[in-house]
Amino acid sequence: MTHHVCAIVPPHLLDQLARSENPAVHEPARRTLALDAAQRVHRRLTTEIGPTVAPPIRAADHPERIVCDAQHRQELPGRRVRCEGDVDTPDTSVNHAYDGLGATFDFYLQTLSRCSVDGDGLPLDASVHFRNNYDNAFWDGEQMVFGDGDGRIFGDFTQAPDVIGHELTHGVTQYTANLQYFGQSGALNEHISDVFGSLVEQYAKGQSTEEANWLIGEELLRPGVQGVALRSMKAPGTAYDDDELGKDPQPAHMDDYVETFADNGGVHINSGIPNHAFYLAATQLGGYAWEHAGHVWYDVLTSGTLAPDADFASFAGLTTAAAQAYGTKERDAVLQAWTAVGVLTE
Fold this sequence. Notes:
The protein is of the alpha+beta class. The protein has helices at residues 11-18, 23-49, 92-112, 161-175, 183-205, 263-266, 272-285, 293-301, 312-324, 328-340, and strands at residues 6-7, 65-69, 79-83, 124-128, 137-139, 144-146, 215-216, 231-232, 241-242, 246-247.
């Protein structure tokens, strides 16, 4: 199976920025695209053969975090600057990364009884200040990596807790269903990370489905950019409309499904359809999304019945069946959500 770096900023968006006439915009985007391509090789190896370093003794009730400073170089992990239990450092990127790793660990443990991304207390490592003006953050199969952004379009990638939750959830998927990163299965891979990235933030802030903004990466866009986030689960296709970024291409319904070979078959684009289905199901049920719809999605992800090449329809069927275990109300909400986005028909 082929695996790819699962970065938060999709290649179609970086491609758009790379065509800008402004060097302050196109140069960081072009460097980021080149670096992302190089990292795909590393992630393919780590996800197929597993981490090469034996993990330390693990604790079940708290994370084991290590944050390193890459010092604007490409070699990872860099210089170790904060370990589990250490106090804040003068570097806010280090502290944000440390806190985001902890928030994600806490969410999975407290709401889903999952101990770290592998379910067995895997230490959570991260590197900040990766290269210069790097416009992305990613899970490489072993650890988190954060860029500082170019300062014009994107800011520091450590400051978005939903982004950290999103990327670490790629690790959860890696250790469970291991969805193939192409076409609809790849879009489901991205969708699941968006779902749990959003839930990490909602849980940390104590937000109900009505209080949540259902945006992914809202902290990343710099002032002056015409947009609110990278993606919107509530209203896919409306996250940004900017001269440099272009217009958000995400569809919210199967009628607008995008057939493309770019972005691994549109994995960051067509994920808008299942994203909207989750939003509809969660808001229909109300309360805290992690207590109902989130549990249903997690049950399917970890059930062993989700095929690596699953498509939207099969995932919709599995989540609808899983929701029945929680009650008729839950089943109907999930079924109606998938029907509303055109994945299932009545």
